[in-house]
């Protein structure tokens, strides 16, 4: 089975383990970008990867 390129909003929320309000708060703040395809809001998998990368610590010193 192949990994989807786009996820529905609900699938993206499940991946991030976020509630509806928090997810749309991040969308409104421009932290997560939605794509409209045939009138349906979808989240690109690469967009989720980009967002998660912003959450990871960059300081590798222990």
TrEMBL record:
KW DNA-binding (keyword) present: yes
Alphabetical UniProt keywords: DNA-binding
The UniProt record lists the keyword Flavoprotein: no
All copies of domain Helix-turn-helix, residue ranges: 6-53
Coiled coil region boundaries: none
Stored Pfam families: HTH_17
Protein name: Excisionase, DNA-binding domain protein
Lineage: Bacteria, Pseudomonadati, Pseudomonadota, Alphaproteobacteria, Rhodobacterales
């Amino acid at each position: 089975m192949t990994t989807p390129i786009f996820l529905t909003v609900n699938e993206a929320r499940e991946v991030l383990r976020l509630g509806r309000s928090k997810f749309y708060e991040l969308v409104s703040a421009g932290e997560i970008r939605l794509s409209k395809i045939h009138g349906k809001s979808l989240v690109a998998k690469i967009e989720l990867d980009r967002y998660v990368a912003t959450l990871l610590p960059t300081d590798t010193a222990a």
